[in-house]
Design a protein that fits this description.
Layout: H1 27-32, H2 34-49, H3 61-74, H4 76-108, H5 110-124, H6 132-138, H7 143-167, H8 171-179, H9 184-195, H10 197-221, H11 227-237, H12 240-271
Helix pairs in contact: 3-12, 4-5, 4-7, 4-10, 4-11, 7-10, 8-9, 10-11, 10-12, 11-12
């Protein structure tokens, strides 16, 4: 009599849903706050506890906070922040629009690329502050001059990213668009620009950072208000607490505007890419 057959089948595993375990709500934000909190703690220790620096060299965090509250109560801080944000947004929008248009032209047209790219590349190599004397001579460092300088800073990152991305778009994708009857501007907006959304937004975010950098350069050279002006005035008056306050506000505003642009990027990726 033969022995009963043994069941050699592997034990069944419970079905998996494929979902990642949920993390803590706001965990990513909390993780990103660890380093700023550590820097703030170290700042407080070396100034207020151990006295490594004098109040003139590096004021304690609470001194900077008090300076900020004083400027807020007088309304001066809101004025400085408002005019700086306005200048950055105007210059960023103007420079990005120009970079998008010229980058698209050179990225789509081989003739335009061969004709204009060497000249644009030469201008891109010019240091930012080298434009200041020319802007002073032609426009002056009023509002128009400041916005123009910021626009120059924002132009080149957008131009470079869109030009390079469009030159490397999959030609089969372009041919498929043409097969559906898309040509010219419609082909650009329907097929080519959606195909290069990630590098375009990388250029836009770099352009935004450049806009804040050029803002400070323009306001350091000639302004009666703005965060760059607050930096210069605080240095001349020996108010290191206000100087540090201006630096902190520039960092916060720069991060806030970058986060807003990042939200727009995620929406664009979900819609087009």
């Amino acid at each position: 009599m033969s022995a009963p057959a043994q069941d050699t089948a592997a034990p069944t595993q419970p079905p998996t849903t494929g979902k990642k375990p949920a993390g803590l709500p706001g965990g990513k934000l909390l993780l990103g706050l660890i380093v700023p909190a550590a820097v703030l703690l170290a700042w407080w220790l070396v100034t207020d506890v151990f006295g490594v620096f004098t109040a003139t060299q590096l004021p304690a965090p609470q001194a900077v906070l008090e300076a900020g509250l004083g400027l807020m109560s007088s309304g001066d801080l809101w004025g400085h922040m408002g005019i700086s944000v306005q200048r950055v947004l105007l210059g960023f929008l103007a420079g990005s629009a120009a970079g998008l248009l010229l980058g698209s032209l050179l990225g789509l047209s081989g003739l335009a690329d061969r004709l204009l790219n060497p000249t644009v590349g030469a201008f891109r190599a010019v240091p930012s502050l080298a434009w200041v004397p020319l802007i002073l001579l032609w426009v002056g460092l009023g509002e128009d001059g400041k916005v123009l300088l910021i626009a120059i800073g924002a132009f080149f990152p957008v131009f470079t990213s869109i030009h390079s991305a469009l030159r490397h778009v999959d030609p089969h994708l372009v041919e498929a668009g043409r097969a559906f009857g898309f040509h010219g501007i419609r082909l650009l907006t329907t097929v080519q620009l959606p195909a290069v959304v990630p590098p375009v937004f990388s250029g836009l975010r770099l352009a935004l950072a450049q806009a804040w950098l050029f803002l400070v350069a323009s306001e350091l050279l000639g302004a009666s208000e703005g965060l760059g002006f607050l930096l210069t005035e605080s240095q001349n008056n020996g108010r290191t607490d206000r100087l540090l306050l201006a630096i902190v506000m520039l960092a916060l505003l720069g991060k806030l505007t970058d986060a807003l642009l990042g939200m727009l990027e995620r929406k664009a990726l979900k819609t087009w890419a």
